[in-house]
Each structure stands twice: as C-alpha cells, then as structure tokens.
Design a protein that fits this description.
By secondary structure, this protein is an alpha/beta fold. It has helices at 16-33, 58-69, 90-99, 114-121, 137-151, 169-180, 209-213, 237-244, 248-251, 274-277, 284-302, and strands at residues 47-52, 73-78, 104-109, 126-131, 158-162, 184-188, 204-206, 218-221, 259-261. The protein binds phosphoric acid mono(formamide)ester.
Length: 314
C-alpha cells in the first residue's frame, strides 16, 4: 500500500495496515543500522528540526540519530536558550522555523494537541514526539515493534501495562496500537491512576496485581508522572512500591518467557527493582535501539518516501 500521511500525530488515527507498514519499513532500516556504513541518502537535502519544549533523553537522541542515518540535516532546538524564554509563542517559533526552510518538525510539548495545531498552520510535516498526557506515537510504535520482534504475532497475547496510566501518553499510544494488533491488554495500578473508564478503549482494568500478572507474556512498567499530577493520587511512593512495584516475587507470576518493558526514564526501586531492569527478561535497551529504526521509518514515510524503494543491502 502507499503511505498517504504527511503528519504522524496519533496512533488512534492509524490503521492496522499503516502500523504494519511502519514496522515493515523499520525492519528494513534496522538492517541498514547493522551494516558497517549505517547511512543511506534517503533524506539528503532535507532539514529536520527537533523542537523539544519538554525534557527528553531517548526520544530526542533517537530522532536526531534517525535523521542523520537518513542523511538529513538536523537541528535540535534548545528551548532554554531560545526566544521562547522571552515569551515567544509556539506558533511564532514554529512559523519562524518553517520560514528558515525546515522541511519537517518533530515536536515535544506539554500541551495535548499541540502537534495537531502545528499541522494545521504549517505547510510542512509534523511528527508528534509526545504531547502532554495525550499520545507518544513513536514510542507506541517502537514498543509494539519490539514485542513483535520477540513474540511474533501479538494476536491474543496477554500484555499488562502497570503504573500511572491516567497521565501516560505512552500507555494511550500503546493501547491504540496493541488493540489494533489483536493483543489482550490489561491495565493495572491504583484505582486513582487506572480508572474503570479506560475500559472504553477496549482493554481490561484490574487493581489486583497478582491476577493481572498471572501468565502475562509482556509487562510494561510506567513511572509515576509527578509533573502531570495535579493532586495526590496515592499516599506515598513507598506505598506505591509496596502495592504495585515489580519485584522478583511478583515477576515469578508472569509467563515463564515473559518480557519486561519500560519506555524510560526508569525510577529504579519504585516501579521496578534494579535486578529486573537489568535482568535477562528485560528488553528495555532493545526498545531504545529499536527507536532509531522506527523513527527512521516515520521520518522517511512522512517525508514522502516510497516504501517499495527501501531496499537495504547487507
Ligand atoms: N520514553 C521517552 O519518551 O523518554 P524521553 O522522555 O527520555 O524521551
């Protein structure tokens, strides 16, 4: 199929065929990344701006590397030393970036809907790198790419997302992708952070950790998003860890071949024991590595690349 989108804003709006297409192009790009020369000229002459107005380690660096592997020129915007500190609006900043000749903007912003807003006022593709508590589409794509790599088809697979779901854009994007891919998704955590209303997204909600983890093939931990919470959602971090933190005992309830995932940043000793984060069931660093190939695929497709022209040579 041909790719018809200029922007990547949400996974809610993507079809299963489009998710498959991104994963398939990412598979081809992953082969490129395994070669001695890890670069192809697909986006030579294009300029990509990483407009990150919220902190990031993984997403910003992976987009930076992805653009460079595709031979694009890339500029990472430093919010702290920019004119946003003088009161310049997102609209003015973005319009100036477009006027300087950028071909694409990758936006991280604390306001849900800001990538959609830019996509409507700018004439260049916009990629959502995380907007508030709304969505983080490339994270959902790299997470499901990693699961498919490890498990094959996700149809009927038991996936548990554990932690602060209410404030998590990662959870929302994963839910949209996983349900389209046919997985059985259970959300687990304290009732204040995992309300039953989330069942409208086609998932199961559980506040009983043992039954949620029993025989699950994937568990994805999420950190507590203090920066987005406007009220105290549970008594203390210690209490959260004692009730819902993943430790060796609780991990033994999982399917024997289960994988442990986390989008990062990890709060060791809070939502996950260090021994599990670094253990052999953990695929946390594979997620990070896969983030480059998946973001190469997103940049390439939204820039107008034809999927059939991705023919990496070993
Ligand atoms: N997973 C994720 O979005 O990490 P960063 O905030 O470091 O980009």
């Amino acid at each position: 199929m041909s790719w018809n989108r200029r922007h990547l804003l949400t996974l809610e709006e993507l079809s299963l065929a489009e998710i498959d297409q991104i994963h398939s192009v990412a598979t081809a790009f992953k082969k490129v990344l395994g070669r001695s020369v890890k670069k192809i000229p697909a986006l030579r002459g294009k300029t990509i701006i990483n407009l990150f107005l919220e902190p990031s380690t993984r997403t910003r660096m992976a987009f930076d590397m992805a653009a460079k592997r595709l031979s694009a020129d890339v500029i990472s915007f430093d919010a702290a030393s920019s004119s946003t500190t003088k009161g310049e609006t997102l609209r003015d900043t973005a319009e100036n970036i477009a006027a300087l000749g950028a071909d694409m903007i990758v936006l991280r912003h604390n306001c849900a809907g800001s990538p959609l807003y830019l996509s409507k006022i700018l004439g260049i593709p916009v990629i959502n790198a995380g907007d508030g508590s709304h969505e983080h589409p490339t994270q959902g794509l790299l997470d499901t790419f990693t699961m498919r790599e490890r498990l094959g088809s996700l149809k009927g697979r038991r996936v548990v997302i554990l932690g602060d779901i209410l404030f998590s854009r990662v959870a929302r994007s994963n839910i949209h992708a996983l349900t389209k891919l046919g997985a059985n998704v259970t959300l687990c955590g304290p009732s204040t952070l995992v309300p039953h209303s989330l069942e409208s997204l086609g998932v199961t909600v559980s506040h009983d950790l043992r039954s949620a983890l029993a025989d699950a093939e994937v568990v994805m931990l999420l950190r507590i998003q203090h920066e987005r919470q406007t009220a105290t959602m549970f008594p203390s971090l210690g209490e959260y860890t004692s009730m819902f933190g993943l430790n060796q005992t609780r991990a033994s309830w999982l399917h024997p071949k289960a994988i442990i995932m986390h989008p990062g940043p990890i709060n060791r000793g809070v939502e996950i024991d260090s021994s599990l984060a670094d253990g052999e069931r953990s695929v946390i660093l594979d997620q990070v590595t896969n983030g480059i190939a998946v973001r190469m695929a997103c940049l390439y497709l939204c820039a107008g690349g034809a999927p059939e022209s991705v023919t990496p040579v070993d």
